[in-house]
Amino acid sequence: MTAVEFYLDARQRACAKVFAFEPESTQLDSSMSILFRSFKSKSLHIPKRCLSTQNPVENLLDTLKTVKETPPLDPQFTTISQTLIKSASKTLRNSIDKTLISTLSPTTVDLILSDPRLKLSKCFTFFTLLLENQTLLSFKLDLQTHLFLLVRLVKARRFSEVETILNLILIGENYRYPFHNFASSIRNLCDNPKIVSKLFNLIFKVYSDNSMRDEALEVFDHMDNNRIEINERTCTLHLIHLRKCDCLEMAVEFFRRMIDSVIDISVYSMTVVVDGLCKCGEIRRGRELVEEMSGKGIKPNVITCNTLVDACCKRWNFGELDLVLALMEKEGVEFNASTYKFLIDGYTSSGKIEEAEKVILAMWDSGMKVGAYLYTVVINGYCRFGNMENALSLFDEMTKREVSPSADAYWALINGFCKIGQVGKAERFANEMQEKGVELDKVAYHKLLQGRN
């Protein structure tokens, strides 16, 4: 693309921007400012009347018809652009002479970043190189330049690169911009609501990831107050961050803000909060939140309910467990394998072994196959309390259902019979175990020897 073609392309893009403005507007956005700065450079000549605030649209359109090439393009722009175009992405950083950076001007930087011949990835590399070598620049990269590239990256769905730049200019010690400056500039630069929404959501995420919670809430409130679409997934990530940082009450408060906003809340956000409450022992609050949200149309799923079931079983809170199971029945949430496992673990660890055995039978009745692990947990529970009759009965049932006993199941029976002095039965299971190719370990041998003595 020649110099003339490049500026003709810029002219076409400028016209497209102009037609998007209201005729009575007396201000041009940053993209137009960049174009004017380019025209005012030594590359092209544009009459001063076009820069007038009176009738800028008409003046610009009239002038674009007659604009003509004058002296050659800025040699810095030509040199760096050609270097970026020709260089491979992996060697790009080493290809640019850093002595050129100190000679750059704001106009040259804008021209390079808006050059349609350059791949966006190379523009990003060039820009980050400038940020890393700010001391070599004779000027500070203004906010408009940052946002111009950010909008291009968002449009191209290069979100990781957007986050990289946002971390530098929102979090970085030497190059930080306050959010209120960002907010007004974004709305002036881009009128595409989807692009604006994505950029604000990424700003929210960057603040959240860096534990800048007050700033994150400021962004959230700005989006909510200005009817900018808030991504529920971004909010869920913020809730997860608050939970990991043990900021439970902040997470609950933020979830309440989500409820009061226009966000379509999903069961996933609710489950994050319920999980945080359960981990802190606030099981009742978690259940009540599920009941409240169910009344608002946000129904719990099996993951939500399992979170409550697991918490109840680990804390042996069986009164609350009964309420949770009743809630599951009311909402039509069916048990899955994890639900049964949590119940069996909870009942056996608390000594309610017969209740655990009932759960195994319920699994079979529901059409779900029970594995050797769950049988072993219950058998071991019976053996711990010396109830070898029930342990043996459950072992026999397991084999009848063609579930192969594990080495741990044999060991539980051997240990249990040795404890009550029935070494003969213990040896029977030891022999059966060896016949199946499972070797006794030293602990099992030691138990049998102790029993004989």
TrEMBL record:
Can you tell which superkingdom this protein's organism belongs to?
A: Eukaryota
| PPR-type repeats, residues | 266-300, 301-335, 336-370, 371-405, 406-440
Classification via Gene3D superfamilies: Tetratricopeptide repeat domain
Q: Which keywords, in A-to-Z order, does the entry hold?
A: Repeat
Q: Which Pfam families match?
A: PPR, PPR_2
Classification via InterPro entries: PPR-containing_protein, PPR_rpt, TPR-like_helical_dom_sf
PROSITE patterns named in the record: PPR
Family per record: Belongs to the PPR family. P subfamily.
What protein does this entry describe?
A: Pentatricopeptide repeat
